[in-house]
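Run folding on both entries below.
>entry_1
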Amino acid sequence: MAQDLPGAVLFACSRNRVRSPMALGLFKLAFGDRIFVDSCGVRVEAGEEADPFAVAVMDELGFDLSGHVSKTFDDLDDDSFDLIITLTPEAHHRALEFGRTRAVAVEYWPTPDPTLAQGSRDEVLSQYRDVRERLAARIRARFERPVTFGG
């Protein structure tokens, strides 16, 4: 069941190149600018861009990830989030540490790593699409309010 919408959401994963940027893009497609959203990672190399396969599968939905540059929790412009959604165990641990001194809820959404996919380009893209669709379903389930008669 959907819950009240937060004012600011952070998606966090390990490297901020695939899962958390895709979640950010899906969230922006669903909510536009109504809710502030950002993403970060735990182990980030300076200047790393989004994974090309993540860019390709998000482009299929009309969201451009090509300008995304990875960042860590320490690189965030604003750290006043209502909710941090972690997509990897490593990010979850870091988010709990980050949230110790802040009034922030932390949720863990275990998400497979599509960078481990092997095979042809089409097979790899299929794994990335699967992760994208899993994230989209979780976002819909968590944030979209149920439609009721007259309201």
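>entry_2
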Amino acid sequence: MNQMLKLLEYSQCWPARPSFYITTLDAPAGKLSQRGPVYVIGECNRQHPIKAVKVFFKCLRIALQERPDVVVTTGSLPIAIFCILAKMFGAKIVWIDSIANIEQFSMSGRMIRPLADLFLTQWPELSREYENIEYVGAIL
């Protein structure tokens, strides 16, 4: 989330103001709510499939309601679920894999990579190892 907040500070990153925000936690929702509508979908991971089902239905409701044109994310499994649903409704996906992933992409990044319209890594080494991956610098 810190990486996305950092990106939001730079207006040149955004040709238009985002129309809504999704977060997995309540804490960043306060900062984001000053910028527009915020949805909190909760956390999940592969060890907690029931939580993932709850997140799926929250994401489905948001995707149906908002019908985004583009999703920009630094990713996590809950947001990957949203990306899959948004892609089904025609959205473009911009995935910025976490700076924490030095040697390989995150699991959610590996899942979204075939669907992403633009996949960015924050490590030049990874961009050289894989096709259709771009490195344009680190966020933090």
